[in-house]
Structure formats: structure tokens, C-alpha cells
Amino acid sequence: MRTSWADSVANAESSAFATGASASTTDTTAANATAAAVVSAPRPPRAAYVPPHLRNRAASSELPATPSADGSSAAKLAPGPGAPSGGSRSGGGTSRDMGRTGSGGGGRSVGGGWGSRSGGWDGRVREVNPFANEEETTEVAFDGQENTGINFDAYEDIPVETSGDNVPPPVSTFADIDLGDAVNENIRRCKYVKPTPVQRHAIPILLAGRDLMACAQTGSGKTAAFCFPIISGIMRGPPSQRQRGSKTVCPPALILSPTRELSIQIHEEARKFSYQTGVRAVVAYGGAPINQQLRDLERGVDILVATPGRLVDLLERARVSLQNIRYLALDEADRMLDMGFEPQIRRIVEQMDMPPRGERQTMLFSATFPREIQIAAMLFGIGNDDGPLMSPEPVTVLPCSPLYEMRLASDFLFNYIFLAVGRVGSSTELIVQRVEFVLEPDKRSYLMDLLHAQKVNGAYGKQALTLVFVETKKGADSLEHWLSMHGFPATSIHGDRTQQERERALRSFKNGATPILVATDVAARGLDIPHVSHVINFDLPNDIDDYVHRIGRTGRAGKSGLATAFFNENNSSLARPLAELMQESSQEVPDWLSRYATARSSYGGRNRRSGGARFGGRDFRRDSSARSGGGEYYGGGNGYGGGPYAASGYGGGYGNPGLTSAWD
Ligand SMILES: Nc1ncnc2c1ncn2[C@@H]1O[C@H](COP(=O)(O)OP(=O)(O)OP(=O)(O)O)[C@@H](O)[C@H]1O
Predict the structure, then answer these.
(1) Which of 202, 219, 266, 439 can bridge 225 by disulfide, Cβ–Cβ 3.0-4.6 Å?
(2) pLDDT tens for each residue of 453-484
């Protein structure tokens, strides 16, 4: 068995080599790049905020060009959100239809059409080239690798489901979407040749101004799927406003994510996508000096990428106002709506000055959505323009119950479109999954065998990174120490490390200095680290969705990867969903795991997110039993405290205070 591990490891790693670097490969971390932007760059002179629509004009106050009559791009998709006619959008901000009606056309005329956006920020604030650092380091670290090995064909036969009213059709190429010359140039710089399936579907939906709940597999390009339409909408929209003399900024777009590192990463991506468009992205997250972030905000912000805790802080200090928000994106949305984040999210979205749903455009993205969130979206108010399909009143809502989480989701969306690329919560077949039965005391020696196999096979180095997930922060420290003592260069990331330490660890992992990263769930979601060829679940999580996100740190952007899990009695509640997931992803399920799964089902054990009967691949507005309020999920009227979810220990993952994920 161990020999087969070694083979798998070797195969996965040579395959990682063979497939080459991802489109945006770099061996510098997002944090590094951020630091480069913030620290190394010469500090630009403080400047008054200049809104995007004015930034690419000559210093003399030119009038906007006459709307272009150029029909050449008329056949292309153009953003719907508030697309103005005649280049002016003022006065249109209050109706429910704000940003909903445009079907293209008028918006492109601002400033004489996309072609006239020469790019660049206001002359007084220098925009650092987000690609410069990357190009340099890419040459050094990944010499000889080009972005040609990305196997996006692997996604081609994935079933796609969309539902909702009047779903805009997907596009086939980036050329089919009128994102503008500057964004197109950035797509080229990113070396994106064609849109991934989630991008093909989501971008037209979002450009049409519709709310969206989108689920697509890890590593399939969701970040660009929500960033491109936001950038494009901002470029075409009204200028961002700020009262003269006020220190409060009012960005038109807010992207929330659950961890600091993910926020940094999204910000880096947004900076690339918006380079020379005049759209300015700023990041704010906890653990870093707030003064620096305040100064950055003062220079102007169109897209604020933030973690919820730090955002609440900024709102309380009145340094940010949400009154002009037109685009709200929740990345890792299911996590953001989970118990741990709920108070902050509800506060941000409902209790501050953010325009209500219907007046802003809301987008929820994740690789996993528990079915309760989908059902909630259906039940409480996103059914259609006339309002909720069902009144929420008859249902008892207990805080800390899944229904509470469901209500939260529904509070955000308006007449949304549901998009599922692949089965909701599924894992890509690009990841080879192995599960080994390993008793607790044997785990370290098994791990050692795996790592030795990698070393022996000669693929141990910069381009073959191994991510080891453990359950606790203490466990992470201890395993890191143990590995280092045994000659394996390792570092760790978890919630007890300072932000500086976390960013340093990530950097040294990414650049291969310490090719083993021991992590808690703080690194489970969203992080896009090139060359992670092996994810080891040293401790399995309690929740199958967490497993999906963890293993999704490998096998990204069409590349293959390997995921190994150590399973024992302590993980028996995960046996069934794990076996199902593996089966669905065409993986070999060991007999002993199937037996565990069967035994577990026979006495009713079930992981809350698995739900046995699957929550996958469909919009729950179509589920008549749910619609009627009866059936499996609403029967009993017990406020969701028990039923299928009780057995799995709801909240046992992130709800466990021992497993802090740094969300601030
Ligand atoms: N159209 C494209 N062509 C080539 N590469 C792409 C394309 N779109 C995205 N990528 C690359 O694919 C990788 C994964 O993208 P991204 O991080 O957005 O995935 P994701 O779906 O958000 O994953 P997760 O669910 O783990 O958060 C990134 O390196 C990104 O640059």
C-alpha cells in the first residue's frame, strides 16, 4: 500500500511538472506583492480622489466624448448594470431596477467608448504595475514553463445548470464579452486564453445586472468570474463619490472573504484585472496596521476587498460608508454565511447604510453550498419580483441553526440566478484522492513515509509543494517542529501566528524555501498556490465541504494533483459523505471505507452537508417538496435543531472556538 502511495506521489508530481505553471504563476505571494506595492513602491504624493470616469482624461478638464455610435461591438455583451444612455448615470440610483435594466449599448459611451480609456490612474497617484513583479520572478523560478499546459478541456464535459428567470446565454470566448480594451489587455497579460465554464456562464449573467448564486469546483476561476463584471460595471457606472473634506470613502463595490490571506489574494487578482482601467482596488484585513490601510483608502477606492472584522472596524470609525455599494460579492459565500461570520455579515449588509437587495447587485460564489442555503434563497424572498415565494413567519428560526444561516442568504439576494458548474460541492476529477486507514499514533510515521517517497522520487523542491492539514493550532506547531527536526523543511500557518508570521510562512511555502506547509483550516479555502502537488489531510475535517475545499488547494486550473487522507475511527461520521464524494469524482473507494460508510448510514449518521440524497447540481427552487414547506427539511417544525444535522455536530468545524479561522 505504501508503495502505491509512493507511486501516486511520484505520478502526481511529475504530472504537476508536465502541466506547467498556471496562468498567473508567480513564486511571490500575494502578500509579498501587496507589500511590494505598499512598502517598496515610492509613496505617491497624497492626492484628492479622482473617480474612475475622470482618471484617464487629460489633466485639462476635457468634456466627455460624445457617445460613440460605433456599432462594431454592438453584438457583444455589454454590462447591464445601470448602463446609462448618453454617458450620464446620475439620478438613477434609487429604483429597484437600478443596474438591472441595461442590456448593453449606452454604457460604453462614457468617455467615448472603451477604446478611449487610455488607462492609468490620475497622474498624481502612480499605479504600480501588478504584473511587473510576477514577470520577473516567473522567469527566475519557473524558467522554461509556459502557461500552455493548462488543461481546461478537463472542465469541458462538466454538466452546467442554470436556473432562474431569463437566464442570459453563456459566451464561448472572451471576445464575445465587451469588457473593454483595458480589461482585455489584462486578460491577455494573465495569459487567459479562453474563459473557464464558470466564467462563460457567470460573466454574462452578472453583466446583465442579475444577482447570482454560483457554485463551481475549486480552482475553476471563480475570482475572475466576479471580478471582471464588477470592474466593467464600475468603468461604465457613475463616478464614485466622496464628500469634499470628508475622510469617509464610499466604494461602489465590496468583496468580502473569510480569511486575510484570501482577501490579499483577491486584491492582487483585482489589481491585475483592473490595471490601467482607472478602477482602484484596496484591501483591508485584520492583523495588519490599520493606519496604512486608512492611508490607502484615502487615495480612493472603487473595489474594497475586505475581511468582515476589519470592515466593521472601518465602518465604525466612519472611514468607509457602504451607501454607494452597487456590487456586493461574497467569496466562499457558504462560509461567510456560516455561524462564525453571521453577526458581522448581517451587520455589514443589513445594519449599515448599504443599499438593500434589489438596489445593489449581489453575487455569492463558492465551491460548496449546503442545501439549506439554497432552500433558504428559494423560500425567503428571492423567488421572483413579487417577493418571497413563502412567508418565513411560520418557521421557527433558532440562532445557530442551519435555518438561521438560510435566512441570511435569502436576505441578500434578489431575483437571483442559480448556477452550478458540476455537482454542487463536488470535487474535480483532476485530483486523485487516496484514503488510508491510519491510527492516531501512527500518523507521523505514515507522513514521514509519504514525504520520503516524494524526496526519493526527486520531485521535492520549488515546484512540488505539500500542504498538510491538521485540526488544531497546537497540532500545527507541533507537527511543523517535528518535521523540521526530521529534516523536512516545513513552516506553518494558523490563527495563533501573527499576521506577519502567516504572510512570511505563505511566502516561504510559495517560493519553495519551505516546501511543506502545515496548516489549519485557515488555509483551506480559496488560496491559489501554484505547484501544490499534494494535499495531505493528516487530520480529516468534520465536514465534507471543508474536505472539498482543502483538497482543492491542488489540482487547480486544469492541473492534476494528489490528495491523501488519514482516516480512523475518529472520522467515522465522515465515512459516508467521503465515500460518496470519491465515487462521484471517479475515485477508487477502499472497501473498508465503504463498509464504514454503510455501517454509519445504518444507524443514521450523516454529515450535515452531505444530506445523503445529495444537494447537488440543482436549484432548490425547482424542488417541489421544499417549496411546499414540507418533507425532509421542514417537517416537524423544530427549528432545525435536530434531524439530519444533529448527528454531524453542526458547527463542529468553524464553530469550534479551538479552530479559529482568522476572519478579521
Ligand atoms: N480563463 C482562465 N484561463 C487560465 N487560467 C485561469 C482562467 N481563469 C482563472 N485562471 C487561473 O486559475 C486559477 C484558479 O482560479 P481561482 O483562484 O479564481 O479559482 P476558484 O474557483 O476561485 O478556486 P477556489 O474555489 O479554490 O476559491 C488561478 O491561478 C487563475 O489565475
Answers:
(1) 202
(2) 887 665 544 458 999 999 999 999 999 999 99
Distance 618 CA to ligand 1 centre (A): 23
Q: How confident is the model at residue 528 (pLDDT cuts 50, 70, 90)?
A: very high
- The closest residue, in CA terms, to atom 5 on ligand 1 is 23
Q: How far apart are CA 278 and CA 234, in angstroms?
A: 9
pTM of the complete model: 0.74
Any idea what the Cα angle at residue 597 is, between residues 594 and 602, rounded to 5°? 125
Cell numbers for 89: 448615470
Closest residue (by CA) to atom 3 of ligand 1? 192
ipTM of this predicted structure: 0.99
- Which of 223, 256, 335, 363 maximizes ligand 1 atoms within 8 Å of its Cβ, making it the mutation to test the pocket? 223
Pick the closest to residue 450 from 441, 440, 438, 462 (CA basis).
438
List the grid coordinates of 603: 444507524
Q: Report the C-alpha gap between 168 and 176 in whole angstroms.
A: 13
CB of 426 within 6 A of ligand 1: the answer is no
Q: How far apart are CA 350 and CA 411, in angstroms?
A: 8
- Count of all residues that appear for the chain in the document: 664
How many CA atoms lie within 13 Å of 83's alpha carbon, on the beta-carbon side?
Answer: 23
Regarding the beta carbon of 526 and ligand 1, being less than 6 Å apart is answered yes
Find, among 62, 298, 59, 72, the residue nearest to 178 by Cα. 72
Q: Is the CB of 552 under 6 A from ligand 1?
A: yes
Span from the CA of 578 to the centroid of ligand 1 (angstroms): 25
- Residue 192 CB less than 6 A away from ligand 1: yes
Computed over its alpha carbons, how large is the radius of gyration of the chain?
Answer: 24
How far is 502 from 552, CA to CA, in rounded Å? 20
260-273 and 181-189 are packed helices; what angle lies between their axes, rounded to 10 degrees? 120
Q: How far apart are CA 96 and CA 100, in angstroms?
A: 8
Question: So what's the pLDDT on residue 124?
Answer: 53
**How remote is the CA of residue 221 from the centroid of ligand 1, in Å?**
3
